[in-house]
């Protein structure tokens, strides 16, 4: 009898526990939030691109200081090191709207008054650059060799008659350039920049024997431009930083 009673109690307890378990809500599982890695911006690699902006001459230049439209192309390579510094080299060529200027010179007594007509257009540079990067931004300075094309020319003519006068020009087609800019890497392969650059070609002398005069002026150009670069990323794709 005792065994029958104990067995009955066990069956009732088991049934009650099963019914209670059935009434409990299903256990829910919460997925851990996905880890979003912070990107590492990689500046190492080759790039090519283009730019537009404006160019104007220095105040002592015979062509005057009026601004004119300019645009061109650039290409280069950068290497990121240590770990926020970027060292690079860049070649750039710019075409500017031709700047034609007539400048009247009053000659000494008994000499011929004359007018100098100057034209300037394209110029370029090969520079090194050094920059400091934080995140996607790169602040840099640059400097190196400046050069210009053969489209620059000078004509001299008699102011009164318009007849051409013989003259000789001493000028340099190479010089130096310095500049600075800010570049922003807005995708792993694309960056945009704004930049100022100064080109100096020394002094140009124009000798006019018939007028008995020599015209000398500083030959320099300032430019401000915005550019877009496509980067090939030597260092591979953007990776995660843990």
Number of strands: 14
Helix content: under 10%
Largest sheet: 8 strands, antiparallel, barrel
Overall 3D form: elongated
In round numbers, the mean pLDDT is 80
Report Rg.
36 Å
Strand line-up in the sheet with most strands? 2-3-4-7-8-11-12-13
- Tell me the β content: over 45%
Number of helices: 1
Structural class: mainly beta
Q: Low-confidence segments, ≥5 residues, pLDDT <50?
A: 5-14, 236-242
Secondary-structure element pattern, one letter each: HEEEEEEEEEEEEEE
Gap between N and C termini:
70 Å
Can you walk through the features of this model?
With 242 residues, the protein is mainly beta. The chain is built from one helix and 14 strands. The strands form three sheets. It has an eight-stranded antiparallel beta barrel with strand order 2-3-4-7-8-11-12-13. A hairpin with a 2-residue loop joins strand 7 and strand 8. The longest helix is centred in the first third of the chain and has 22 residues, at 2-23.
Quick overview of this protein structure:
The chain is mostly beta strands and 242 residues long.
Name its key features.
242 residues, eight-stranded antiparallel barrel, three-stranded antiparallel beta sheet, 14 strands, elongated
